[in-house]
């Protein structure tokens, strides 16, 4: 696989993820499409471009931060990479099946904690034998004790969050997609959960991390992609991209929208025009 622009050309022998001109559209109807206007008006559909022309190549071993304001398309991009949503246009190639964290496993209230853990592990791709061996470790780590044999309906929200987090972070994927911070229950549990998450990030072959906490992105990712309203604005070293994003955010916060938009234009103008070509042999 080679990436090419008029100035540089590089060859990546074993890319982990290749996204070529990815676009993703959603069709909205009813109140969402009318902007919340009168219920009695005729329903009209409108198309929202969640992603437009997103292109990048990720080498094996890279950790990628994805930043941008709410509604920029960050989570949509993760779902496209994960394969849970198909792009409207363009192509996405992934070296292996990614694991998407950030959406809690579908825990069933009438099942016990142990049963939910077992089914959750199967859903994450574990074999039945692996899942059976891992369930006791999950129960111990989530500190459920005898509650593990009770239905989830008897759990507090904190207990449910701990179990959900423990299940979600029990796999060691080659390509890990993390959408914001996972809920981990009470604050006393936070340090323990953070340590487990750090271990997961270190063990994964590739990480795509969506977060509004820029220090988390800087700590875990060498490279960062900035998306704004579906468009790629920047793709480069994390410190540089985060700095420009912070400048934009500060301008926007201070009401200097015209300057913020001009900064967007300037930064995006430096984004390389990449085309992707397969390398024979």
UniProtKB/TrEMBL annotation:
GO terms for molecular function: ATP binding. Keywords: ATP-binding, Nucleotide-binding, Transport. Coiled coil: none annotated. The keyword Transport applies. Residues 17-254 form the ABC transporter domain. SMART domains: AAA. It comes from the Bacteria. InterPro entries: AAA+_ATPase, ABC_transporter-like_ATP-bd, ABC_transpr_TagH-like, Bact_Polysacc_Export_ATP-bd, P-loop_NTPase. Belongs to the ABC transporter superfamily. This is Teichoic acids export ATP-binding protein TagH. The gene is tagH2.
């Amino acid at each position: 696989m080679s990436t090419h622009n008029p100035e540089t050309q590089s060859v990546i022998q074993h890319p982990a993820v290749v996204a070529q001109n990815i676009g993703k559209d959603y069709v909205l109807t009813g109140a969402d499409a009318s902007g919340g206007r009168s219920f009695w008006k005729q329903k009209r559909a409108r198309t929202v471009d969640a992603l437009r022309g997103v292109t990048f190549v990720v080498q094996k071993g890279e950790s990628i931060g994805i930043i941008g304001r709410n509604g920029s398309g960050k989570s949509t991009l993760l779902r496209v990479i994960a394969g849970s949503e198909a792009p409207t246009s363009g192509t996405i190639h992934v070296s292996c099946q990614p694991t998407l964290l950030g959406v809690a496993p579908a825990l069933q209230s009438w099942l016990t904690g142990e049963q939910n853990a077992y089914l959750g592990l199967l859903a994450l791709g574990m074999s039945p034998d692996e899942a059976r061996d891992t369930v006791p470790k999950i129960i111990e780590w989530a500190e459920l004790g005898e509650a593990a044999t009770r239905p989830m309906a008897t759990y507090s929200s904190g207990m449910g969050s701990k179990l959900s987090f423990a299940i979600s972070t029990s796999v060691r994927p080659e390509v890990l997609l993390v959408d914001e911070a996972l809920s981990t229950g009470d604050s006393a549990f936070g340090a323990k959960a953070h340590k487990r998450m750090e271990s997961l990030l270190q063990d994964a072959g590739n990480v795509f991390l969506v977060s509004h906490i820029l220090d988390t992105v800087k700590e875990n990712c060498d490279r960062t992609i900035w998306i704004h309203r579906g468009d790629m604005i920047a793709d480069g070293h994390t410190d540089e991209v985060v700095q420009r994003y912070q400048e934009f955010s500060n301008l926007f916060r201070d009401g200097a929208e015209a300057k913020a938009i001009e900064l967007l234009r300037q930064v995006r103008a430096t984004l390389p025009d990449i085309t992707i070509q397969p390398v024979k042999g």
